[in-house]
Design goal:
Structural class of chain A: alpha+beta
Structural class of chain B: alpha/beta
Number of helices of chain A: 12
Largest sheet of chain B: 6 strands, mixed
Distance between the termini of chain B: 36 Å
Order of helices and strands of chain B: EEEHEEHEHHHEHEEE
Helix content of chain B: 25-40%
Radius of gyration of chain A: 29 Å
Number of helices of chain B: 6
Oligomer: heterodimer
Strand order of the largest sheet of chain A: 6-7-5-8-4-3-10-1-11
Largest interface: A-B, 28 and 38 residues
Shape of chain B: globular
Number of domains of chain A: 2
Strand content of chain A: 15-25%
Shape of chain A: elongated
Strand order of the largest sheet of chain B: 6-7-8-3-9-10
Largest sheet of chain A: 9 strands, mixed
Number of strands of chain A: 11
Radius of gyration of chain B: 18 Å
Helix content of chain A: 40-55%
Order of helices and strands of chain A: HHEEHEEHEHEEEHEEHEHHHHH
Distance between the termini of chain A: 31 Å
């Protein structure tokens, strides 16, 4: 068979550069819209678990009444000690979790910050450098400040790195910043601080001392997580729920996905981008076919098959998809970087979304092409004589 | 008619065989008959010229033979393949073996002269890209356009476009050439050259030619002259 032919689809597109440019701009716009909406959606879901991902735990105990990180309920700390009785459990960390008012040391205005209280002797975060920093929390009234917190909390990281002593008020009580950690703001919390349980209870005296919001459980290396989870769930009273690390993360994401309108809003935004793109590509391909109808009819009169001509339109669709996707991808990258630097949300180009958007654009172009092909059937070779 | 004759059609049958072919345009009250029981035959390698006043049905006859229209009544077979109630595939095979030179030349606007001709050559199977390209160039040289190969139809004169269309029709190695006033846009010298070229092709490649023309200067190339009037072919006057 013939190996090479005249790239008719390509020439049809490129001999009208202005129209091609409009088409590419349209597809690119639709692509950017999809990238941004899906990026925001996934970014917000990911952002809701920035802290969750950092915990050093195999299993997590939470109260069944806890709905999400912004509404955590307490459960008796004794449950962790009971969990220790299981032979595969090698360590536990009780964590208090609540929102407290932080006073900006510069402007003196207050803002809610997520405060985590834990036992400085036991591990909390996966970060290996953390244990050393945690030692400074053994003194009362000391906190570790999250240097990725939003700027509204004051220039704490800058002051601290300059060697200044940073003191401010949390929940109306004086604290001193003893170090910096990097956690990152999440959907519910604009900033984070970590302190000891002792300080935490001082800041929040109404909190019952025997009550915690999260219990981190670490298992021995050879333990079967599922099995331990089942036996713990069976042995512990039902005032506590046992989750794997992943379930704990999903539990939080799921709250934002199902109990808020965020997921719907952004998915709808992406769908609109898709529809807009479809309309644009269809318009371009349809008018292209209409304009060249006499030429398509000529080709049919010469003995080209209808199938070959369908192929030409389909190839035009593929070219448009690729030509539109490349600038959409690059703009998406640039806009993600902009979003990251201005909102500190973890919005990034992940391979899954890269493929998804490409697939959607390709689908959009091919669907439009196949509708435009119907116009080809109208090409009557008898008309051209 | 079996379809596997597709690529080597029988050569010992008449190229065109028409028997009692009638054709109407329009529907109902506005229905108008344009062809009245036309019968004719073209043998391989024969050059037939068709003349007659405009509106007498010449072009309709040409499009029917070119498998561009549905046959309504009568028998019409091309290369031995019956066109009445034919399948799309049959019509496509017939079209592929017919070179058509349209009155409105119908070049592809987005292709250069050379690429337009190559669209014809691309219909040939078992030829490499290089060979098809060479073939296209040769045909353009034959019609005297060796200096215009890279030009778009937009930049060519009417006569040059006409010649590109002729080169395109020839490049597909047709077994039958249907031409509707191929010399109308050409001056007498070029017109003469083109017609001689078609005649030579008919002899060398046993390609039949059916040409509609009003041009009295080229009537001498014809093996046979047919006159048409009011949808009927007049008795042959030798």
């Amino acid at each position: 068979m013939q190996d090479r032919k005249i790239p008719l689809a390509w020439l049809l597109l490129t001999r009208q550069p202005l129209r091609l440019l409009v088409a590419i701009a349209g597809i690119c716009f639709a692509g950017i819209l999809m990238f941004m909406q899906l990026g925001f959606r996934d970014g917000l879901f990911d952002a809701s678990v920035t802290v969750h991902k950092l915990f050093d735990a195999d299993l997590v105990l939470v109260s069944p009444r806890s709905m999400s990180s912004i509404s955590m309920s307490g459960f008796p700390r004794r449950r962790l000690i009971q969990a220790m009785a299981h032979k595969d459990v090698i360590g536990t960390t009780p964590v208090n979790w609540n929102f407290l008012l932080w006073r900006n040391p510069q402007t003196l205005s207050t803002r809610a910050i997520l405060a985590l209280g834990f036992e400085p002797g036991s591990p909390l975060l996966i970060d290996p450098n953390f244990a050393e920093k945690a030692q400074s929390l053994k003194n009362s009234g000391r906190v570790l400040f999250d240097d990725l917190s939003r700027q509204e909390f004051g220039p704490v990281p800058e002051w601290f790195s300059e060697g200044r002593i940073v003191e401010t008020e949390v929940a109306g009580k004086r604290v001193r910043v003893a170090g910096l950690v990097s956690l990152g703001p999440s959907f519910g919390a604009d900033g984070n601080l970590i302190t000891s349980r002792e300080t935490f209870l001082k800041l929040l005296p109404s909190n019952p001392p025997g009550s915690i919001e999260i219990g981190l459980v670490r298992l021995s290396a050879e333990a079967d997580h599922e099995k331990v989870l089942r036996s713990l769930a069976a042995s512990l009273p039902n005032d506590v729920k046992v989750l794997t690390r992943q379930e704990f993360i999903d539990f939080e994401k799921n709250y934002w996905r199902t109990s808020t309108s965020i997921g719907f809003i952004f998915t709808l935004g992406a769908a609109m981008g898709f529809v807009v793109g479809c309309v644009i590509v269809y318009q371009i391909l349809y008018s292209d076919v209409s304009d060249h109808l006499a030429e398509y009819a000529t080709l049919m009169a010469m003995g080209y098959r209808l199938r070959t001509l369908f192929g030409v339109v389909a190839r035009e669709g593929i070219f448009l998809a690729v030509l539109g996707y490349v600038p959409a991808y690059l703009s998406g990258q640039a806009l993600y970087a902009l979003v990251r630097s201005s909102t500190k949300l973890p919005v990034a180009m992940d391979p899954q979304r890269t493929f998804l958007v490409f697939f959607l654009i390709l689908f959009m172009c091919m669907a439009s092409a196949s509708v435009a092909m119907r116009r080809l059937v109208d090409a009557d070779p008898a008309d051209i004589f | 008619m079996p379809l596997n004759f597709a690529n080597d059609l029988e050569t010992n049958v008449p190229t065109v065989q028409i028997d009692g072919l009638s054709h109407w345009f329009g529907m109902g009250n506005t229905r108008k008959q344009v062809l009245y029981s036309v019968s004719m035959k073209i043998d391989p390698g024969e050059v037939v010229l068709l003349t007659g006043p405009s509106g007498c049905g010449k072009t309709t006859l040409l499009t029917l033979i070119g498998a561009l229209r549905r046959v309504q009544k009568g028998e019409l077979s091309v290369f031995g393949l019956q066109l009445r109630n034919s399948r799309r595939k049959t019509r496509q095979i017939i079209r592929r073996n017919i070179g058509m030179i349209f009155q409105g030349h119908n070049l592809l606007r987005c292709l250069t002269a050379e690429q337009n001709v190559q669209m014809g050559a691309d219909l040939l199977k078992n030829l490499s890209y290089r060979k098809r390209r060479k073939l296209s160039r040769n045909w353009l040289v034959e019609v005297g356009l060796e200096d215009q190969m890279e030009k778009l139809p937009h930049d060519l004169s009417g006569g040059q476009k006409q010649r590109v269309a002729i080169a395109r029709a020839l490049s597909a190695s047709p077994r039958l050439l249907l031409a509707d006033e191929p010399t109308s846009a050409l001056d007498s010298v070029t017109g003469r050259e083109i017609v001689s070229l078609l005649k030579r092709l008919a002899i060398e490649q046993k390609c039949s030619v059916l040409m509609v023309t009003h041009d009295p200067r080229i009537l001498d190339v014809a093996d046979r002259l047919l006159k048409m009037e009011d949808g009927m072919i007049l008795p042959v006057v030798e």
